Amino acid sequence: MLVAHLPLYGLRVRTPDLELRLADLAELARLGDAAAAGIHDPDVLPFMHPWTQEPDVGRRVILGALAELGQWRPDDWSLGLVAFHDGEPIGRQILSAKEYAVTREVRTWSWMGRSFHGQGLGTQMRAAVLALAFDGLGALSACSAAFLDNHSSLRVSEKLGYQPDGVQVDAVRGRPTISRRLRLTRERWALHSRVPVEIEGLDPCLEMFGLG
């Protein structure tokens, strides 16, 4: 069985409205369709790289998900869980870290099909992987960043207890663009974690996270 070789395929993270897990190929194809149908307003660019504006965005989503697993190392990993709502894939929530066994710090980013925005599902997606990080993997801190005009992402961070962690300037499409950095500590998470989250199948995966 696949899960015997890649126990990550047995990992499940559930919230009241979502299940987050790795997807099989058929599900990745449906996820690619969701991405191709639109992720954000065409006049807005919420990501550092304009991958959502490429004509083959569905293919990029599928190949990106497969590449993450192919490049996985316990000291440098990126877990791209697919969010399922009523059985359909609606987006991806990524949790990543380098030298996690030493730093105990994770980073997050995500995307969700445009038709699902404004329903609180983005908050549940982020809360799910934060619970995985803090409650399951023993993280000490989680970092995120968003452009100043990415109000939805910044609101999610505020709801979940993140605090300002400075700013950074990057070159985006040839222009300087400011992002707001945010950090959530284990103590702040304990005070703000209000979304019920259930984690299943984590123990066999710990070695893959560098914790075995």
Automatic annotation (TrEMBL):
Taxonomic superkingdom: Bacteria
EC number: 2.3.-.-
Keyword Oxidoreductase: no
InterPro entries in the record: Acyl_CoA_acyltransferase, GNAT_dom
Matches recorded under Gene3D superfamilies: 3.40.630.30
Segments forming domain N-acetyltransferase: 11-187
Any one GO molecular function term: acyltransferase activity
Protein keywords: Acyltransferase, Transferase
Pfam families membership: Acetyltransf_3
Family annotation (PROSITE patterns): GNAT
Protein name, entry field: GNAT family N-acetyltransferase
Species of origin: Hamadaea flava
